[in-house]
Recover the amino acids of this structure.
């Protein structure tokens, strides 16, 4: 058996230089080390578009890694299921997140975005009135994007609005835990407490909704059946916990990166403001160019041969989605943010036939891609309508942070509030 060991000159994904700017190292990985054994994480890095896309469709790469990666936090979820169990869960979820099922939740999405943006505008208006600032100011991450997808989820589930704060706290605790590479014991303890609190909160509500006739997502999940099977209480609780991360962190960070990308390209911001049919282009290009999910893991179920390297059975592979999405074998000038690019298929960008891999491809393709698109469309349209002359606050430069997921943690902007 041959395995390639990390060459001395190969980029180290745990180095500070990589954390500062992973993109220049992605190029080196793709061109020189398309399959690289990384000793510190005991895993194989896979960085080219075609290799990632093929792996997601190949059962030799399973998602059993989630048994140790996420099960301790959420419980057993769809992410780690395969075969019939996975198809049954997808069949239970799909009706709520696609087509008419999703459209029924549009008012919830709209109402939440409007409420949050209205707050931003109202505070800005108040500042104007108070003479504190000549323009409206906000941190669009803290004031908007970290709240929006979580509040939508809480409302879709039919849980009280008064619990928005509580879910937001749980969300931040789980996120901190997932990004706790340094192993801070306080963060681990808080995540353990969150797991317990969410369980104590959810289980009695799930028991109640089993007999309910409400129209909310939770009641419908409690009552839905495929082939005579229902999701168990523990599975529903685990799914809600997963949604905080799968649907929360991703959309939060994608929204922040999209607004950053547009402010950084004022001509493109202006083009989208004038022609709203370009909103989907801005979303899709953000997912390709600066999608929040940089890495996900897979596990090999058999020895796999790739570019002359044997990846032994049972190995952890890190699939580098953001490296793949900037592969110049797939996209011309891949480091350029360009909503007009012709090689990104915007019409298919939110479906399993996409030609980027931010939602991956194959059987675990993101269930929530259309919900994410709806949320980002709503967010962008409101920002364009309500926050005129959008620009950074003086002296502020956005800086991306994060390894597995990455985004701008602050977005300090100034704007002229739209007239009421
Ligand atoms: C821009 C936003 C989003 C991005 C970039 C994103 C990305 C992803 C990725 C990469 C996966 C594959 C994970 C893996 O197999 O290891 C995934 C799966 C999933 N996503 Fe999303 N997601 C987004 C929004 C959402 C939303 C809003 C929901 C809410 C329903 C959601 C729910 C899920 C679920 C349940 C899965 C598991 C599907 C399965 O295993 O069959 N996602 N997503």
């Amino acid at each position: 058996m041959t395995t390639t060991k990390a060459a001395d000159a190969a980029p180290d994904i745990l180095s500070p230089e990589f954390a500062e700017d992973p993109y220049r190292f992605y190029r080196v990985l793709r061109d020189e080390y398309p399959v690289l054994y990384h000793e510190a994480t005991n895993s194989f890095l896979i960085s080219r578009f075609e290799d990632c896309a093929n792996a997601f469709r190949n059962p030799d790469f399973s998602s059993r890694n989630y048994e140790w990666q996420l099960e301790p936090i959420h419980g057993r979820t769809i992410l780690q299921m395969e075969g019939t169990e996975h198809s049954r869960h997808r069949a239970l979820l799909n009706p709520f997140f696609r087509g008419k099922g999703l459209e029924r939740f549009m008012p919830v999405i709209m109402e939440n975005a409007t409420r949050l943006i209205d707050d931003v505008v109202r505070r800005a208006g108040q500042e104007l009135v108070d003479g504190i600032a000549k323009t409206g100011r906000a941190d669009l991450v803290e004031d908007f994007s970290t709240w929006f997808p979580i509040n939508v989820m809480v409302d879709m589930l039919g849980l009280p609005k008064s619990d928005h704060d509580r879910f937001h706290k749980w969300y931040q605790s789980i996120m901190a835990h997932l990004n706790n590479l340094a192993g801070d014991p306080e963060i681990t303890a808080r995540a353990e407490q969150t797991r317990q609190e969410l369980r104590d909160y959810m289980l009695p509500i799930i028991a109640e909704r089993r007999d309910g006739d409400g129209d909310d997502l939770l009641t419908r999940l409690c009552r839905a059946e495929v082939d005579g099977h229902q999701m168990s209480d523990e599975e529903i609780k685990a799914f809600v916990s997963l949604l905080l991360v799968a649907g929360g962190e991703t959309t939060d960070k994608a929204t922040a990166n999209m607004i950053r990308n547009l402010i950084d390209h004022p001509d493109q911001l202006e083009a989208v403001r004038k022609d709203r049919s370009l909103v989907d282009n801005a979303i899709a290009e953000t997912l390709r160019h600066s999608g929040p999910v940089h890495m996900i893991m897979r596990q090999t179920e058999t020895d796999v041969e790739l570019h002359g390297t044997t990846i032994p059975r049972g190995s952890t592979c890190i699939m580098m989605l953001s490296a793949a999405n900037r592969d110049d074998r797939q996209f011309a000038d891949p480091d350029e943010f360009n909503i007009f690019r012709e090689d990104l298929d915007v019409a298919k960008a939110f479906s399993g036939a996409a030609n980027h891999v931010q939602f991956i491809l194959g059987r675990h393709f993101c269930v929530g891609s259309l919900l994410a698109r709806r949320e980002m469309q709503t967010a962008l349209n409101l920002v364009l309508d309500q926050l005129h002359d959008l620009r950074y606050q003086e002296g502020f430069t956005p800086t991306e942070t994060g390894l597995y997921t990455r985004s701008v943690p602050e977005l300090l902007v100034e704007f002229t509030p739209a007239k009421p």
